[in-house]
Amino acid sequence: MNARIEDYALISDLETAAMLGRDGSIDWLCLPRFDSPACFAALLGTGDNGFWRVSPIGAGPCTRRAYRQDTLVMDSAWECPGGTVRITDFMPPRAGLPCIVRLVEGLSGAVAMRSELRPRFNQGRVTPWVRADGHCTVAVAGPDALWTSADGPMEIRGTGDSTTVLDFTVSAGQRLTLQLVWAPSHLPDPPEPLSVPAETALKATSDFWRRWTARCRYQGPWREAVTRSLITLKALTYAPTGGIVAAPTTSLPECVGGERNWDYRFCWLRDSTLTLSCLLRSGYRDEATAWLDWLVRAVAGDPAGLQAVYGVGGQRRLPEAEAPWLPGYEGSRPVRFGNAAVDQFQLDVYGEVLDTLYLSLRAGIPLEAHLWNLVKSLMSHLREHWHEPDQGLWEVRGDRRQFVHSKVMSWVAADRALRMGELLGRNECADEWRAMRDAVHQEVCREGWDAGQGSFVQSYGSPALDASALLIPRVGFLPADDARVRGTVRAMRALAHHGFMRRYANDGRGRHSVDGMRGSDGTFVACSLWYADALAATGDLRQARETFERVLGVRNDVGLLAEQWDPDSGRQLGNVPQAFSHIALVETAFALQEAGA
Predict the structure, then answer these.
(1) Cβ neighbours around 157 below 10 Å, total
(2) Mind listing the pLDDT tens digit for each residue in 341-391?
(3) Given the DSSP bridges, would you call strands 496-497 and 500-501 parallel, antiparallel or unpaired?
């Protein structure tokens, strides 16, 4: 039986991340980076797909757990009949090979402990050879080697399924450190253990996170939630390039038992403007600049080839494949690696890129001279294609449509290109871009408006509503006091489910008419936060605050949000933690503070 999605906490070294359950088991880990094949994949299957559990023998979930304040260091405590023990889990920020440190400390009495390590390389599929090597054990298969070591006495034994079991007892005041290091398997010697004592590494890791968090500018009533979201966003950053993954996991279902299971270990352009805004207003200019640099490198080339999603290194090919050997989270199949959204046509990404460049320029981040040519190239392509149907913000795998949000973002592209031209004193294309901006605006207001509902809709000619229309005032397409905006915000109540917002409605038969996929997904965390933003912008501060705090109430016990929330079952759904959800949380906290909510 899989743990609930909300039972997992995150630790990260800024190049990859591990998902740690309440039972002390790391059930998901990709090494050496976010998008590498998983060596622990029990999250999407069973223990036979790989895990590393450290806990009292025979114990269940921990009694209590929490991140140390303003850090990504996790303390989990078990109160057992014989005593109390605490395990501190962390990953030192990468300075060499990736490393997980598990510091076991006796708080009272004496507790019998067990470390059970069962690696399964290549997405939970390949059973390694395991051997002892001095003070270490090493598991090897193909290009991967996992070295495990301990700094104290214990009984080590192997099992027939390449599982390494270490039994030991900790008494009050005793500490023992377990360490797991990944290395390329061709290296002949075991990697050096931590170059400093574990306590020193723990202090250095805690100090790193506290120094980083201290830069946060937000000082409002929701500081704890904002700082935890920002720490999470930092943890999802691939430090060598500045790319930020949407989540560190793949195929956690939007509908348990269904087929809506996607790989989110990549970087989406749809997140680009909100990410940059979030980082800049929170005080993280270096991270914002690194994200911008990643984006500019990723989108270089023919504007016709602009993708919705790229790899953490900016790579374009992310071939999607199914993994039939993995039974999926609670039987949710298929499990997918890679993402076919790279091949979709999405107009909104042009607006996202140009809005991000404009926001950067306005914030005083220097843009290299050649980027003006990028602006002109993107706009030249968009002028020829903005009128075409696409697959939209939600990356539907059904027929292309004339999505209203895609057209609005085409307007944003033209608007921001014009504004950049004004700032840079470059007006050679102003007339063409202004004409396009006006044409898009007129068409959206004519074709995307449903007078009967008093609302903008999902696509031309359809009565279906879409929560992305809540972004219309935020991007400046219409002011918040426009009657059409107010009508749209009122109409969106039809998408509400127990106080949370769906992206769009299904057809009543468990299938979304827009994409034809089976299974009704949950409410979308970011959409609920967009609703709070729109309520604040249109003057309903009380309901805006209530909506925001309702979302805060469904974070898990350590402050993490998945992509979706199911109010009926009271469960998080989708990949976790979700950058889009945490970015939206930070943006809404600032918006409500600025509105006086």
Answers:
(1) 9
(2) 999 999 999 999 999 999 999 999 988 889 999 999 999 999 999 999 999
(3) antiparallel
What pLDDT, in 10s, does the model give residues 217-251?
A: 999 999 999 999 999 999 999 999 999 999 999 99
Contact present, 268 and 261 (Cβ < 8 Å) = no
DSSP 289-347: HHHHHHHHHHH-S-GGG--SEE-TT-------EE-TTS--GGG----EES-GGGGS--T
Instruction: Give the C-alpha separation, 445 to 467, whole Å.
Output: 17
Helix pair angle (579-595, 541-552), 10° resolution? 150
Compute the distance between CA of residue 20 and CA of residue 432 in angstroms, rounded to an integer. Answer: 53
Q: For residue range 292-308, what is the model confidence (pLDDT) as tens digits?
A: 999 999 999 999 999 99
Give residue 325's Cα distance to chain centre.
25
- Compute the distance between CA of residue 276 and CA of residue 289 in angstroms, rounded to an integer: 8
- Tens of pLDDT, residue by residue over 160-198, are 678 999 999 999 999 999 999 999 999 877 777 666 789
Q: Sign of dihedral through CA atoms 446, 451, 457, 460?
A: negative
Burial 335-366 (b: 16+ CB within 10 A, else e): bbbbbbbbebbbbbbbbbbbbbbbbbbebebe
- The Cα–Cα gap between 242 and 365 comes to 15
Rounded Cα–Cα distance for residues 352 and 367 (Å):
16
Burial of 317 (0-12, 13-18, 19+ CB in 10 A): exposed
What are the helix and strand counts (H, E) for the chain? Answer: 14, 28
